[in-house]
Amino acid sequence: MAIAEKKDLYTFPGPPDAVSPEWPGTPIGAKNTVTRTKGRTLVHDKTVDAKPGLFKRLLASAFEHIATAKETTHSHDVVIHGLRVRAITNSEHLIGYWKDNWYAVDEWQRITGKKPAETPDVLVVALGRVPSEAEAAYYSRQNDTVIFFNTSYYGQLKSWVLGAVGRKLAVEYGIHSIHGAVVTKGGKGILYIAPTGTGKSTSTYGVMDFPDTRFHSDDWVYVRYAYRTKDGKIFSPARILEGGDEVARGYQTYRWLEDHRASDATVIGRGLDDREVTASARDLDIEHPEAYAYTSEKVFYLRSNLVENFPQAAFDMIRSRLENAPDVTPEFMLQNKATIDAIEQQLRRKPPFDNMDNQELRETIARFFAFDNTRAMLDITTVFPKERVYTNPMEPARIHAIFLVKRNFDEDVVVDRLSIDEFMARLLVGLTPAGTKEIVYNSYRAVDDKSERAWIDTIEAKGIDKMWSEYQKAKDRPETLNEEMEMFRMLFKSAAAYDLNTVLQKDKAIGSKMEAVQKTMKLIVAALDNTREDFRYTIKDYAELLSRAK
Questions:
Q1: I need a labelling partner for 251 at 20 to 30 A (CA). Which of 155, 314, 362, 374 fits?
Q2: Domains present along the chain, CATH in parentheses
Q3: Contact indicator for 196, 162 with CB cutoff of 8 Å
Protein backbone atom coordinates (compact mmCIF):
# COMPACT_ATOMS: atom_id res chain seq x y z
CA MET A 1 0.00 0.00 0.00
CA ALA A 2 1.31 3.46 -0.87
CA ILE A 3 2.20 5.90 1.90
CA ALA A 4 0.37 9.20 1.40
CA GLU A 5 2.20 12.46 2.03
CA LYS A 6 1.06 16.09 2.24
CA LYS A 7 -2.64 15.52 1.57
CA ASP A 8 -1.90 13.05 -1.21
CA LEU A 9 0.25 15.45 -3.24
CA TYR A 10 2.80 12.65 -3.51
CA THR A 11 3.12 9.04 -2.34
CA PHE A 12 5.74 6.32 -1.81
CA PRO A 13 5.25 2.60 -2.46
CA GLY A 14 4.87 0.79 0.85
CA PRO A 15 7.48 -1.59 2.32
CA PRO A 16 7.50 -5.31 1.47
CA ASP A 17 7.62 -6.25 5.17
CA ALA A 18 7.99 -4.80 8.65
CA VAL A 19 11.80 -4.80 8.80
CA SER A 20 13.27 -3.86 5.41
CA PRO A 21 15.07 -0.49 5.66
CA GLU A 22 14.95 0.00 1.84
CA TRP A 23 12.96 -1.19 -1.17
CA PRO A 24 12.46 -0.26 -4.84
CA GLY A 25 10.41 2.80 -5.65
CA THR A 26 8.62 3.44 -8.94
CA PRO A 27 11.36 3.48 -11.60
CA ILE A 28 13.04 6.77 -12.49
CA GLY A 29 16.66 7.34 -13.43
CA ALA A 30 19.16 4.49 -13.15
CA LYS A 31 17.54 3.29 -9.93
CA ASN A 32 15.10 4.61 -7.35
CA THR A 33 15.40 3.40 -3.76
CA VAL A 34 12.82 4.24 -1.11
CA THR A 35 14.23 4.28 2.42
CA ARG A 36 12.03 3.63 5.44
CA THR A 37 13.80 6.43 7.32
CA LYS A 38 13.99 9.62 5.25
CA GLY A 39 15.73 11.78 7.82
CA ARG A 40 17.53 11.51 11.12
CA THR A 41 17.02 8.30 13.07
CA LEU A 42 14.91 8.43 16.23
CA VAL A 43 17.95 7.33 18.26
CA HIS A 44 21.05 9.44 17.44
CA ASP A 45 23.80 9.28 20.03
CA LYS A 46 27.11 11.12 19.67
CA THR A 47 28.01 10.62 23.36
CA VAL A 48 28.90 6.91 23.18
CA ASP A 49 32.30 7.46 24.83
CA ALA A 50 30.61 8.78 27.98
CA LYS A 51 28.74 5.47 28.46
CA PRO A 52 31.08 2.67 29.64
CA GLY A 53 30.72 -0.54 27.68
CA LEU A 54 28.32 0.84 25.06
CA PHE A 55 30.79 0.96 22.17
CA LYS A 56 31.94 -2.62 22.74
CA ARG A 57 28.32 -3.81 22.88
CA LEU A 58 27.38 -2.02 19.66
CA LEU A 59 30.41 -3.33 17.78
CA ALA A 60 29.81 -6.87 19.05
CA SER A 61 26.17 -6.70 17.97
CA ALA A 62 27.19 -5.50 14.51
CA PHE A 63 29.80 -8.16 13.88
CA GLU A 64 27.64 -10.92 15.33
CA HIS A 65 25.01 -10.03 12.75
CA ILE A 66 27.59 -10.04 9.96
CA ALA A 67 28.80 -13.46 11.06
CA THR A 68 25.39 -15.10 11.45
CA ALA A 69 23.10 -13.44 8.89
CA LYS A 70 22.93 -15.17 5.53
CA GLU A 71 23.36 -12.05 3.41
CA THR A 72 26.04 -10.22 1.45
CA THR A 73 28.14 -7.71 3.36
CA HIS A 74 30.12 -5.10 1.42
CA SER A 75 33.36 -3.39 2.47
CA HIS A 76 34.83 -0.46 0.56
CA ASP A 77 37.55 2.07 1.42
CA VAL A 78 37.46 5.68 0.19
CA VAL A 79 39.62 8.75 0.83
CA ILE A 80 38.05 11.91 2.27
CA HIS A 81 40.51 14.82 2.33
CA GLY A 82 43.45 12.50 2.84
CA LEU A 83 41.86 10.24 5.46
CA ARG A 84 41.06 6.63 4.63
CA VAL A 85 37.48 5.74 5.56
CA ARG A 86 36.08 2.22 5.45
CA ALA A 87 32.36 1.42 5.08
CA ILE A 88 30.98 -2.01 6.00
CA THR A 89 27.31 -2.48 5.11
CA ASN A 90 24.70 -4.99 3.97
CA SER A 91 22.76 -2.27 2.12
CA GLU A 92 22.97 -2.30 -1.69
CA HIS A 93 21.72 1.29 -1.69
CA LEU A 94 24.30 2.59 0.79
CA ILE A 95 27.28 0.87 -0.80
CA GLY A 96 26.21 2.10 -4.26
CA TYR A 97 25.95 5.71 -3.10
CA TRP A 98 29.16 5.38 -1.07
CA LYS A 99 31.13 4.32 -4.15
CA ASP A 100 29.52 7.02 -6.30
CA ASN A 101 30.12 9.79 -3.75
CA TRP A 102 33.80 9.50 -2.83
CA TYR A 103 37.21 8.85 -4.33
CA ALA A 104 38.34 5.24 -4.09
CA VAL A 105 41.87 4.73 -2.78
CA ASP A 106 43.37 4.12 -6.24
CA GLU A 107 41.47 7.12 -7.72
CA TRP A 108 42.73 9.42 -4.98
CA GLN A 109 46.32 8.31 -5.48
CA ARG A 110 46.09 8.68 -9.26
CA ILE A 111 44.53 12.16 -9.19
CA THR A 112 46.44 13.71 -6.28
CA GLY A 113 49.68 11.72 -6.28
CA LYS A 114 49.14 11.18 -2.53
CA LYS A 115 49.10 7.76 -0.89
CA PRO A 116 46.64 7.38 2.02
CA ALA A 117 47.24 5.33 5.16
CA GLU A 118 47.17 1.54 4.85
CA THR A 119 44.58 1.20 7.61
CA PRO A 120 41.34 3.19 8.05
CA ASP A 121 41.39 6.48 9.95
CA VAL A 122 37.61 6.30 10.35
CA LEU A 123 35.29 3.25 10.29
CA VAL A 124 31.57 3.22 9.49
CA VAL A 125 29.40 0.15 9.99
CA ALA A 126 25.82 0.37 8.65
CA LEU A 127 23.61 -2.71 8.92
CA GLY A 128 19.93 -3.25 8.23
CA ARG A 129 17.59 -6.01 9.38
CA VAL A 130 19.29 -6.39 12.78
CA PRO A 131 16.46 -7.63 15.03
CA SER A 132 18.31 -7.03 18.30
CA GLU A 133 18.79 -3.30 17.62
CA ALA A 134 16.56 -0.27 17.26
CA GLU A 135 16.78 2.09 14.29
CA ALA A 136 19.72 4.14 15.51
CA ALA A 137 22.98 6.01 14.81
CA TYR A 138 26.00 6.09 17.13
CA TYR A 139 29.40 7.82 17.10
CA SER A 140 32.54 7.18 19.14
CA ARG A 141 35.23 9.87 18.92
CA GLN A 142 37.71 7.79 20.91
CA ASN A 143 37.44 5.05 18.31
CA ASP A 144 36.71 7.23 15.25
CA THR A 145 33.79 4.94 14.48
CA VAL A 146 30.19 5.45 13.28
CA ILE A 147 27.65 2.64 13.72
CA PHE A 148 24.19 2.65 12.09
CA PHE A 149 21.43 0.10 12.59
CA ASN A 150 18.29 -0.41 10.53
CA THR A 151 18.40 2.73 8.37
CA SER A 152 19.37 3.07 4.71
CA TYR A 153 19.01 6.86 4.43
CA TYR A 154 22.31 7.95 2.91
CA GLY A 155 21.99 11.59 3.97
CA GLN A 156 22.51 10.80 7.64
CA LEU A 157 25.28 8.31 6.95
CA LYS A 158 27.16 10.84 4.83
CA SER A 159 26.73 13.63 7.36
CA TRP A 160 27.92 11.60 10.34
CA VAL A 161 30.95 10.30 8.46
CA LEU A 162 31.84 13.87 7.44
CA GLY A 163 31.49 14.91 11.07
CA ALA A 164 33.80 12.13 12.25
CA VAL A 165 36.40 12.98 9.60
CA GLY A 166 36.05 16.67 10.48
CA ARG A 167 36.80 16.19 14.16
CA LYS A 168 39.97 14.29 13.36
CA LEU A 169 41.14 16.87 10.82
CA ALA A 170 40.50 19.79 13.19
CA VAL A 171 42.22 18.37 16.25
CA GLU A 172 45.20 16.84 14.49
CA TYR A 173 45.76 19.16 11.52
CA GLY A 174 43.85 22.41 12.09
CA ILE A 175 41.75 21.77 8.97
CA HIS A 176 38.26 23.27 9.15
CA SER A 177 35.26 21.23 7.94
CA ILE A 178 32.42 23.54 6.87
CA HIS A 179 28.89 22.71 5.77
CA GLY A 180 29.05 25.06 2.82
CA ALA A 181 29.53 25.49 -0.90
CA VAL A 182 32.20 27.27 -2.96
CA VAL A 183 32.37 28.73 -6.46
CA THR A 184 35.12 30.97 -7.85
CA LYS A 185 34.91 34.02 -10.10
CA GLY A 186 38.06 35.44 -11.58
CA GLY A 187 40.03 33.21 -9.24
CA LYS A 188 38.29 34.63 -6.17
CA GLY A 189 36.47 32.08 -4.01
CA ILE A 190 32.94 32.66 -2.74
CA LEU A 191 31.98 30.54 0.28
CA TYR A 192 28.30 30.09 1.17
CA ILE A 193 27.33 28.91 4.65
CA ALA A 194 23.65 28.39 5.19
CA PRO A 195 20.92 26.36 6.82
CA THR A 196 19.10 23.97 4.51
CA GLY A 197 16.50 25.54 2.23
CA THR A 198 17.86 29.09 2.04
CA GLY A 199 19.50 28.93 -1.39
CA LYS A 200 23.05 27.62 -0.90
CA SER A 201 23.03 25.29 -3.92
CA THR A 202 20.96 27.74 -5.94
CA SER A 203 23.51 30.49 -5.30
CA THR A 204 26.44 28.24 -6.22
CA TYR A 205 24.95 27.13 -9.52
CA GLY A 206 23.60 30.61 -10.22
CA VAL A 207 26.99 32.31 -10.15
CA MET A 208 28.16 29.80 -12.77
CA ASP A 209 26.07 31.76 -15.32
CA PHE A 210 28.74 34.49 -15.12
CA PRO A 211 31.95 34.36 -17.19
CA ASP A 212 35.30 33.32 -15.69
CA THR A 213 33.71 31.11 -13.01
CA ARG A 214 34.58 27.60 -11.78
CA PHE A 215 32.49 25.20 -9.74
CA HIS A 216 34.20 23.97 -6.58
CA SER A 217 31.85 22.29 -4.10
CA ASP A 218 28.17 21.91 -3.34
CA ASP A 219 27.71 20.90 0.29
CA TRP A 220 30.94 20.47 2.23
CA VAL A 221 34.37 22.07 2.07
CA TYR A 222 37.67 21.66 3.86
CA VAL A 223 39.37 24.95 4.67
CA ARG A 224 43.05 25.32 5.52
CA TYR A 225 44.21 28.57 7.11
CA ALA A 226 47.65 29.57 5.86
CA TYR A 227 50.31 32.17 6.49
CA ARG A 228 52.93 33.58 4.14
CA THR A 229 56.58 33.43 5.14
CA LYS A 230 59.20 36.09 4.48
CA ASP A 231 60.63 33.98 1.66
CA GLY A 232 57.24 33.61 -0.06
CA LYS A 233 56.07 30.19 1.10
CA ILE A 234 52.40 29.69 1.93
CA PHE A 235 51.61 27.00 4.42
CA SER A 236 49.10 25.81 7.00
CA PRO A 237 50.43 25.06 10.50
CA ALA A 238 49.68 21.67 12.02
CA ARG A 239 52.11 21.42 14.95
CA ILE A 240 54.41 23.75 16.87
CA LEU A 241 57.57 22.57 18.63
CA GLU A 242 59.45 24.64 21.19
CA GLY A 243 62.54 23.29 22.90
CA GLY A 244 61.77 19.89 21.43
CA ASP A 245 58.29 19.76 23.02
CA GLU A 246 54.98 20.07 21.21
CA VAL A 247 53.25 23.21 22.50
CA ALA A 248 50.28 23.35 20.10
CA ARG A 249 48.57 21.12 17.57
CA GLY A 250 45.77 21.47 15.03
CA TYR A 251 43.32 24.31 15.62
CA GLN A 252 45.29 25.43 18.72
CA THR A 253 48.23 26.60 16.58
CA TYR A 254 46.57 29.83 15.38
CA ARG A 255 46.07 31.44 18.79
CA TRP A 256 49.49 30.23 19.97
CA LEU A 257 51.19 31.93 17.03
CA GLU A 258 49.33 35.19 17.69
CA ASP A 259 50.50 35.10 21.31
CA HIS A 260 54.14 34.22 20.47
CA ARG A 261 54.96 36.28 17.37
CA ALA A 262 58.64 36.70 18.21
CA SER A 263 59.18 33.04 19.07
CA ASP A 264 61.79 30.96 17.31
CA ALA A 265 59.58 27.86 17.73
CA THR A 266 59.45 25.47 14.81
CA VAL A 267 56.14 25.40 12.98
CA ILE A 268 55.43 22.20 11.04
CA GLY A 269 52.67 22.29 8.47
CA ARG A 270 51.62 21.70 4.90
CA GLY A 271 52.03 23.74 1.76
CA LEU A 272 49.11 24.27 -0.63
CA ASP A 273 50.37 21.19 -2.52
CA ASP A 274 50.11 19.19 0.74
CA ARG A 275 53.86 18.72 1.10
CA GLU A 276 55.33 19.09 4.59
CA VAL A 277 56.88 22.53 5.24
CA THR A 278 58.65 23.93 8.30
CA ALA A 279 59.32 27.53 9.33
CA SER A 280 60.19 29.61 12.35
CA ALA A 281 57.19 31.23 14.04
CA ARG A 282 58.83 34.67 13.80
CA ASP A 283 59.00 34.38 9.99
CA LEU A 284 55.22 34.11 9.54
CA ASP A 285 52.91 37.01 8.62
CA ILE A 286 50.47 36.31 11.43
CA GLU A 287 48.38 39.45 10.77
CA HIS A 288 47.24 38.33 7.32
CA PRO A 289 46.06 34.72 7.25
CA GLU A 290 44.59 33.31 4.05
CA ALA A 291 41.84 30.70 3.68
CA TYR A 292 42.01 27.96 1.06
CA ALA A 293 39.09 25.65 0.28
CA TYR A 294 39.36 22.06 -0.90
CA THR A 295 36.44 20.08 -2.30
CA SER A 296 35.40 16.79 -0.72
CA GLU A 297 33.09 14.81 -2.99
CA LYS A 298 33.77 13.14 -6.33
CA VAL A 299 30.09 13.15 -7.30
CA PHE A 300 27.66 15.41 -5.44
CA TYR A 301 24.82 14.02 -3.35
CA LEU A 302 22.16 16.72 -3.60
CA ARG A 303 18.47 17.47 -3.66
CA SER A 304 16.93 16.81 -7.05
CA ASN A 305 14.63 19.83 -6.61
CA LEU A 306 17.60 21.77 -8.00
CA VAL A 307 15.83 21.33 -11.36
CA GLU A 308 13.28 23.97 -10.31
CA ASN A 309 15.90 26.69 -10.83
CA PHE A 310 18.38 24.79 -13.03
CA PRO A 311 16.51 22.47 -15.42
CA GLN A 312 19.79 21.44 -17.10
CA ALA A 313 20.64 19.39 -13.98
CA ALA A 314 17.85 16.99 -15.00
CA PHE A 315 19.94 15.63 -17.88
CA ASP A 316 22.37 14.06 -15.43
CA MET A 317 19.85 13.27 -12.71
CA ILE A 318 17.77 11.13 -15.07
CA ARG A 319 20.84 8.90 -15.41
CA SER A 320 21.57 8.89 -11.67
CA ARG A 321 20.56 6.54 -8.88
CA LEU A 322 17.82 8.37 -6.98
CA GLU A 323 16.85 8.19 -3.33
CA ASN A 324 13.20 8.65 -2.37
CA ALA A 325 11.75 9.91 -5.64
CA PRO A 326 7.98 9.76 -4.98
CA ASP A 327 4.94 9.23 -7.18
CA VAL A 328 2.94 12.40 -7.79
CA THR A 329 -0.80 12.94 -7.78
CA PRO A 330 -2.93 14.93 -10.26
CA GLU A 331 -3.41 17.52 -7.49
CA PHE A 332 0.34 18.11 -7.28
CA MET A 333 0.61 18.37 -11.06
CA LEU A 334 -2.16 20.96 -11.14
CA GLN A 335 -0.80 23.03 -8.25
CA ASN A 336 2.67 23.16 -9.83
CA LYS A 337 1.70 23.55 -13.49
CA ALA A 338 3.65 26.78 -14.04
CA THR A 339 6.92 25.31 -12.69
CA ILE A 340 6.47 22.08 -14.67
CA ASP A 341 5.72 24.12 -17.83
CA ALA A 342 8.93 26.16 -17.43
CA ILE A 343 11.14 23.09 -16.89
CA GLU A 344 9.43 21.18 -19.71
CA GLN A 345 10.39 23.91 -22.18
CA GLN A 346 14.06 23.27 -21.37
CA LEU A 347 13.87 19.47 -21.62
CA ARG A 348 11.35 18.73 -24.40
CA ARG A 349 12.73 17.09 -27.56
CA LYS A 350 16.18 16.68 -26.01
CA PRO A 351 17.61 13.22 -25.24
CA PRO A 352 16.81 11.22 -23.20
CA PHE A 353 13.56 13.14 -22.58
CA ASP A 354 12.66 13.03 -26.29
CA ASN A 355 11.69 9.37 -25.81
CA MET A 356 8.98 10.25 -23.29
CA ASP A 357 5.42 11.15 -24.16
CA ASN A 358 4.13 14.43 -22.78
CA GLN A 359 2.49 12.95 -19.65
CA GLU A 360 5.54 10.86 -18.72
CA LEU A 361 7.84 13.86 -19.18
CA ARG A 362 5.71 16.11 -16.99
CA GLU A 363 5.37 13.47 -14.25
CA THR A 364 9.12 12.84 -14.34
CA ILE A 365 9.77 16.56 -13.87
CA ALA A 366 7.30 16.70 -10.99
CA ARG A 367 8.87 13.70 -9.27
CA PHE A 368 12.21 15.52 -9.08
CA PHE A 369 10.85 18.26 -6.80
CA ALA A 370 7.62 16.98 -5.19
CA PHE A 371 9.39 15.68 -2.06
CA ASP A 372 11.92 18.16 -0.64
CA ASN A 373 14.41 15.46 0.30
CA THR A 374 14.56 13.43 -2.92
CA ARG A 375 18.26 13.01 -3.64
CA ALA A 376 20.44 12.23 -6.62
CA MET A 377 24.13 11.79 -7.34
CA LEU A 378 25.19 14.54 -9.73
CA ASP A 379 28.44 14.44 -11.71
CA ILE A 380 28.97 18.17 -12.07
CA THR A 381 31.26 17.71 -15.11
CA THR A 382 28.17 16.69 -17.10
CA VAL A 383 26.53 20.03 -16.24
CA PHE A 384 29.54 22.30 -16.75
CA PRO A 385 32.63 21.81 -18.94
CA LYS A 386 35.35 19.91 -17.11
CA GLU A 387 37.74 22.85 -17.29
CA ARG A 388 35.21 24.90 -15.28
CA VAL A 389 35.11 22.38 -12.43
CA TYR A 390 37.62 21.61 -9.67
CA THR A 391 38.19 17.90 -10.32
CA ASN A 392 41.35 17.48 -8.22
CA PRO A 393 40.37 17.36 -4.52
CA MET A 394 43.76 18.77 -3.56
CA GLU A 395 43.53 21.85 -5.81
CA PRO A 396 42.92 24.84 -3.50
CA ALA A 397 40.61 27.79 -4.09
CA ARG A 398 41.40 30.90 -2.09
CA ILE A 399 38.34 32.30 -0.32
CA HIS A 400 37.78 36.05 -0.71
CA ALA A 401 34.16 36.42 0.44
CA ILE A 402 31.91 34.52 2.84
CA PHE A 403 28.12 34.74 2.63
CA LEU A 404 25.96 33.66 5.54
CA VAL A 405 22.78 32.95 3.60
CA LYS A 406 19.35 33.28 5.18
CA ARG A 407 15.77 33.77 4.07
CA ASN A 408 13.94 36.14 6.41
CA PHE A 409 11.00 37.96 4.82
CA ASP A 410 10.59 40.09 7.97
CA GLU A 411 13.81 41.94 7.10
CA ASP A 412 14.37 44.38 4.23
CA VAL A 413 18.18 44.18 4.26
CA VAL A 414 19.35 41.91 1.43
CA VAL A 415 23.16 42.19 1.71
CA ASP A 416 25.23 43.52 4.59
CA ARG A 417 28.97 43.51 5.43
CA LEU A 418 29.39 41.88 8.85
CA SER A 419 31.59 42.82 11.78
CA ILE A 420 33.35 40.08 13.79
CA ASP A 421 30.71 40.40 16.54
CA GLU A 422 27.83 40.02 14.07
CA PHE A 423 29.50 37.16 12.18
CA MET A 424 30.30 35.08 15.26
CA ALA A 425 26.92 35.72 16.87
CA ARG A 426 25.12 34.57 13.72
CA LEU A 427 27.11 31.32 13.77
CA LEU A 428 26.70 30.72 17.50
CA VAL A 429 22.91 31.16 17.36
CA GLY A 430 22.51 29.41 14.00
CA LEU A 431 18.85 30.34 13.58
CA THR A 432 17.21 28.47 10.67
CA PRO A 433 14.07 29.47 8.68
CA ALA A 434 12.15 26.85 10.66
CA GLY A 435 13.01 28.66 13.90
CA THR A 436 15.39 25.97 15.19
CA LYS A 437 18.98 26.64 16.20
CA GLU A 438 21.86 24.88 14.45
CA ILE A 439 25.37 25.74 15.64
CA VAL A 440 27.36 27.13 12.66
CA TYR A 441 24.53 25.84 10.42
CA ASN A 442 26.07 22.39 10.63
CA SER A 443 23.99 19.53 11.99
CA TYR A 444 26.78 17.19 10.79
CA ARG A 445 29.11 18.04 13.67
CA ALA A 446 30.26 14.97 15.58
CA VAL A 447 29.84 16.48 19.04
CA ASP A 448 27.41 16.59 21.94
CA ASP A 449 25.59 19.61 20.55
CA LYS A 450 22.92 19.53 23.30
CA SER A 451 25.42 20.52 25.98
CA GLU A 452 26.98 23.08 23.64
CA ARG A 453 23.56 24.54 22.87
CA ALA A 454 22.71 24.83 26.56
CA TRP A 455 25.97 26.69 27.19
CA ILE A 456 25.41 29.05 24.23
CA ASP A 457 21.94 29.87 25.55
CA THR A 458 23.54 31.32 28.70
CA ILE A 459 25.53 33.91 26.74
CA GLU A 460 22.75 34.57 24.23
CA ALA A 461 20.55 35.60 27.15
CA LYS A 462 22.89 38.57 27.69
CA GLY A 463 22.09 39.90 24.21
CA ILE A 464 23.00 38.98 20.66
CA ASP A 465 25.26 42.03 20.30
CA LYS A 466 27.28 40.92 23.34
CA MET A 467 27.60 37.24 22.47
CA TRP A 468 31.08 37.28 20.98
CA SER A 469 32.57 39.38 23.78
CA GLU A 470 30.86 37.18 26.39
CA TYR A 471 32.11 34.07 24.60
CA GLN A 472 35.71 35.32 24.65
CA LYS A 473 35.57 36.19 28.36
CA ALA A 474 34.10 32.83 29.39
CA LYS A 475 36.39 30.28 31.04
CA ASP A 476 33.97 27.33 30.91
CA ARG A 477 33.17 27.12 27.19
CA PRO A 478 33.03 23.56 25.81
CA GLU A 479 36.28 22.57 24.10
CA THR A 480 34.50 21.19 21.03
CA LEU A 481 32.78 24.56 20.61
CA ASN A 482 36.07 26.37 21.14
CA GLU A 483 37.60 24.25 18.37
CA GLU A 484 34.85 25.31 15.96
CA MET A 485 34.71 28.99 16.82
CA GLU A 486 38.49 29.36 16.82
CA MET A 487 38.56 28.26 13.20
CA PHE A 488 35.64 30.51 12.27
CA ARG A 489 37.54 33.39 13.89
CA MET A 490 40.37 32.57 11.48
CA LEU A 491 37.92 32.48 8.58
CA PHE A 492 36.72 36.00 9.40
CA LYS A 493 40.33 37.24 9.53
CA SER A 494 40.99 35.69 6.12
CA ALA A 495 38.06 37.00 4.03
CA ALA A 496 35.22 39.56 3.91
CA ALA A 497 32.00 38.33 5.53
CA TYR A 498 28.43 39.22 4.48
CA ASP A 499 24.84 38.52 5.38
CA LEU A 500 22.84 37.54 2.28
CA ASN A 501 19.06 37.52 2.68
CA THR A 502 17.45 35.73 -0.30
CA VAL A 503 14.16 37.66 -0.28
CA LEU A 504 14.20 39.69 -3.50
CA GLN A 505 10.77 38.25 -4.31
CA LYS A 506 9.47 40.88 -1.88
CA ASP A 507 10.30 43.50 -4.52
CA LYS A 508 7.13 44.15 -6.54
CA ALA A 509 9.31 44.83 -9.58
CA ILE A 510 10.48 41.18 -9.55
CA GLY A 511 8.34 39.12 -11.91
CA SER A 512 9.37 35.55 -11.01
CA LYS A 513 11.44 33.39 -8.68
CA MET A 514 13.94 32.92 -11.51
CA GLU A 515 14.41 36.70 -11.85
CA ALA A 516 14.89 37.00 -8.08
CA VAL A 517 17.62 34.34 -8.23
CA GLN A 518 19.38 36.07 -11.14
CA LYS A 519 19.44 39.45 -9.40
CA THR A 520 20.62 37.87 -6.15
CA MET A 521 23.55 36.43 -8.09
CA LYS A 522 24.45 39.91 -9.33
CA LEU A 523 24.48 41.16 -5.74
CA ILE A 524 26.91 38.38 -4.79
CA VAL A 525 29.26 39.25 -7.65
CA ALA A 526 29.09 42.96 -6.77
CA ALA A 527 30.02 42.18 -3.15
CA LEU A 528 32.98 40.06 -4.26
CA ASP A 529 34.90 43.15 -5.38
CA ASN A 530 33.74 45.34 -2.49
CA THR A 531 36.28 46.89 -0.10
CA ARG A 532 33.87 49.03 1.97
CA GLU A 533 32.99 48.20 5.57
CA ASP A 534 29.59 49.95 5.19
CA PHE A 535 28.43 47.83 2.23
CA ARG A 536 24.70 47.46 3.02
CA TYR A 537 21.68 47.36 0.70
CA THR A 538 17.97 46.84 1.26
CA ILE A 539 14.94 46.03 -0.89
CA LYS A 540 14.58 49.79 -1.44
CA ASP A 541 18.06 50.54 -2.78
CA TYR A 542 19.67 47.30 -4.05
CA ALA A 543 18.66 48.16 -7.65
CA GLU A 544 20.97 51.18 -7.48
CA LEU A 545 23.91 48.85 -6.76
CA LEU A 546 22.96 46.56 -9.64
CA SER A 547 22.68 49.49 -12.07
CA ARG A 548 26.25 50.54 -11.19
CA ALA A 549 27.51 46.96 -11.45
CA LYS A 550 26.45 46.55 -15.08
A1: 155
A2: 43-173 (3.40.449.10), 176-220+379-548 (3.90.228), 230-284 (no CATH)
A3: no
